[in-house]
Structures are given as C-alpha cells and as structure tokens.
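Entry type: protein chain
Record version: 2
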Amino acid sequence: MTTDAAAPTPALRPFRFAAGGEGNRDEGGARKFVALAQKAEEYGFDTFAIPDHLENQVGPLAALGALSQATSTIRLATTTLAAGLRHPVVLAKEATTIDVLSKGRLELGIGASWLREDFEAAGIPFGTPGERLRQLDEALTILDGLMRGQEVTFSGEFYDVKGVVGTPRPRQGPRPPILVGAGGPRMLELAARHADIISIATGSTPDGKLKLSDMTIEKTVDRVDRVRRAAGDRFDQIELNWTIATILVTDDRVSTAEMVLGAIDSGFPPNMAKDADLTVEDILASPYIMCGTFEEIAEQVRSVRERTGMSYVGVFPTQMDAFAPIIPILRGE
C-alpha cells in the first residue's frame, strides 16, 4: 500500500523592508524629502515608497525622479498610485523613465483609488467600487504591455489605446515589478491575476475607516488564502507585503497591548472602525500592531511570516526610526 506524500511547504522568502514619506509639513516639507529618503537608505531599508494624494504631499513621480539621482541603492516605489487619476499610457512612460534614471530600482505600486475626497476636489468622477476595479484591471493590462516595451492596442470600458509603443525601454527586465494594494475580496483576486507584489491591507468600511477585525492574524491568513486560490500556479511568484500601522517599543508587551485596547475603546485612532472586540492575544499576534523590545518585535515579524508567507515589511514615516534597529536583527533571514 502506498500513500501520497505531503506537499512540500513553500520556502519562505527573505525579509525586505520598506520605509516611506510624503514630503508634508510634519516631515519638514518637500525641501527635506530627499534627506528623509537618504536616511532610509542609511538605515538599511530596501525600498522608499511615496503615496499618491492631492493633499499636502509631494508629487510622487516627480519626487521619484529626484530620488533616482539623490540615492544609489534603495529601491523606489509608489504605494499606491490612484489609477483613476493617472492614464496608464502616460503613467507607463513616466514609470519606465524613472526606472532608467534610477538604474533599475523602480517598483510601481497602483491601486483602485480609495480616497473620494481627492476626486471630488479635482472634479474627477470617482465611480462605484465595481467601476474602479474594472478601470484598474484595464490599466494594469495596458501597463504590463507598455512597460515591457511592447506595442499596445486596447479597447475597453475606460481606455481606448491605438498602437502605442512603450518607450523608453526599462532597465529592469522584462519590466519593473508591479505592486497592487488589496484588502477586499475582489481587489485581492484582481491583484492575484496581475501583481508581482501584493500589499495585504485591511479592509475598510463604506466611509473609509479601517476595520479593526482585519488586523488580526487570523483574518490576515484568510486574505492571503484568497490570493493563493485566485493566483493558482503563479502564487509562488508573488511577493507579499504588509505595512505595520503602529510600533511601540516597550519592556512590557502585555501592559502595552492593554493600553492599545483602551485607546481603541476610546475611539483612537479616529480612522479605525471598531467592528470587533479584540483580546490582548490578538494585539500581540497582529501583523499591523507591533509592541515589545526590538528582539520581541523581530520575533513577532518572524511569526507573521511563518503564519502568512508575508515577507516584505513596510512602515510609515513616523515609524521609521523606531523600526530601524530591528532591520539588522532580521537581515539575511
């Protein structure tokens, strides 16, 4: 009698680390933006990423062009461009130009445009969630071809492209990697079809607040499993990213987790929807809330990778200094 051998466990990817900045007033404005990216490079972060909003921040593509000359090793990313604000034909040319100027360091992050206020302020139709997903699907198809230097003809619901050739040819081959941020089921499935890197985000309520329930390790595993099912054979080719929302360096993890729960009960932060009651254990295992000594936080990051396969760790600008000492602990793992 024979038995089927168990399927091999996929090898865990090495850790990578991403910092970011907006160039807003709190960070010292656009004049100090280059210095912030250079600081991230000195700390040992692998990537420096810029979001895409019309509020108080630098223009991401122009800023990446400047950083392509002001830095030398750190990769340069957008997390994430709003597809509804940027025509993919124009974006492809800007992206491949940055890739050439940076000697092959671009990671192009793009998403389905979630901040209604940007669109309303600019007088641009925001669309329904379904429309924004379909628009992103078309944009990703066009970007994929143009960033490979191919000739693209495409006729869809949102774009009508007639024989455009992607130029300049990018430094990276076959094209710069595409990152898609996703939290909801349909976005996760769309990202699984197109992306080289998927940023596993929390879901949000109709009014744009982050769901507290999605910050648990169990819900995160569920989102990764949805990507796995949708990606099929290409899942092992996808790098999984997440961004830590809060880093609290402390000698007492349990008391700090209790403090976090108390803050949530009091309505802080205001952009979070308390749609579940979490426990101290939930906080201590969460991918998105890290607390403890540097070694304890490093172990929490390891545990998240073990449970989910997510290996590409992002932090917000305000958390860059706090996370920097953890990089050498995890480097090379």
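Comment: Confidence is low (pLDDT under 50) at residues 1-9.
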